[in-house]
Amino acid sequence: MAATASNFLPFSSVNSLSFTTVKALSESGLSSIPSSFASKNSLEDIPVINPPQGTLPIIDFSLLTSTDPQQRSKTIKDLGKACEEWSFFMLINHGIPESLTNRMIQGIAEFFDLPDKEKREFQGENLYDPIRCGSSFNPVKEKVHCWRDFLKAFVHPEFHFPHKPTGLRDTSFEFIKNVREITRELLKGVSESLGLEPDYIAKAVNLESSLQVFAANLYPPCPQPELAVGLHPHSDHGLLTLLLENGISGLQTLHNGKWVKVHAPPNALMVNTADQLEIVTNGKYKSNIHRAVMYSTATRISMGIANGPSFDEVVRPAPDLVDESQPAAYRAITYREYYRIQQANALNNKSALDTIRIQN
Ligand SMILES: O=C(O)CCC(=O)C(=O)O
Ligand SMILES: [Fe+2]
């Protein structure tokens, strides 16, 4: 495949091979999905459940940052429990104005509405390109494509973002700054929940120079949603991923052998604990395996901001969480190398983490 088309989907038109987005496929009025999207994944056998209200953990950010020590310590306990038992929680009262999250979602919708020709300008050519856009996850490596278009951008320590549509760059800059501040507070709480100093994890991963990767996902209407996959089961590469959606649910998190449907309260952020946190906490807080689904008529948009260590930081289990009874369970690796391994392969549960696991 030509390097310049690597992120887009190869698609056989009548007499030539062209490259397309899932959005263009969806709008072409197909009545069935191309066979390259039909999933034969064994994880389909896992039951899917709609949890009763109140099952999934909710963390109130205003209590986490409260000056009342009792409220704060109770919230830190709840946060630790959510990380340990669910690797996932929903964050309310996070302080990002709804007007800003709405502008973000609107701007991303407009980005995906740009003609494919214009989006191709941002597709990038290799994994470390600061802006990439395309379809599925890794069209070259995967057996089954995802019914998804994406935009990815490295937004910290250097801010990269497409210059179209007008205004989205500035909106994103503001949104991402908010996400970074929230992440810093969450990681303080996570450190304290493990009995560590509040800034322990921040120092261990050089959070000042944190790599933040912004990823927007578009799941266009699909003629056969029961056969296709929005995003294959995977865990995220950073420390914590903060996710926002356009009011249409579609995230499912794996818990006790079942896919649990996530229905987040309006304007809540969904938070996944991710692989770098599993490494730093020496497996105490596991990364969350999740997937996304799509629908036959609705268009779903989500955006996840992966908040990671500094790109060149060598990440290893925190010395304070390693001892004779709990030896290091992962080998040290730079976040840059870890990111390469995760992005260069097909999405498949925790396959990237498996490459650095130490069998004790
Ligand atoms: O669309 C979603 O809800 C999940 C997205 C996701 O898992 C990701 O971008 O890593
Ligand atoms: Fe994810």
Low-confidence stretches: 13-17
Largest sheet: 8 strands, mixed
What value does the Rg take, in angstroms?
A: 20 Å
Q: N- to C-terminal separation?
A: 41 Å
Order the strands across the largest sheet as they lie in space.
4-5-13-10-15-8-7-6
Domain count, please report it.
Answer: 1
Strand content: 15-25%
CATH architecture designation = Sandwich
Number of helices: 10
State the CATH topology.
Jelly Rolls
What does this structure look like?
By secondary structure, this protein is of the alpha+beta class. The chain is 28% helix and 23% strand. The chain has a single domain (3-354), classed as B-lactam Antibiotic, Isopenicillin N Synthase, Chain (Jelly Rolls, Sandwich). A hairpin with a 2-residue loop joins strand 11 and strand 12 (258-261). Helix 4 (98-113) crosses helix 6 (168-193). The protein is globular and about 55 Å long. The N and C termini lie far apart (41 Å). Residues 13-17 have low confidence and may be disordered. The structure holds 2-oxoglutaric acid and fe (ii) ion. Residues 234, 236, 241, 290, 304 line the site of fe (ii) ion.
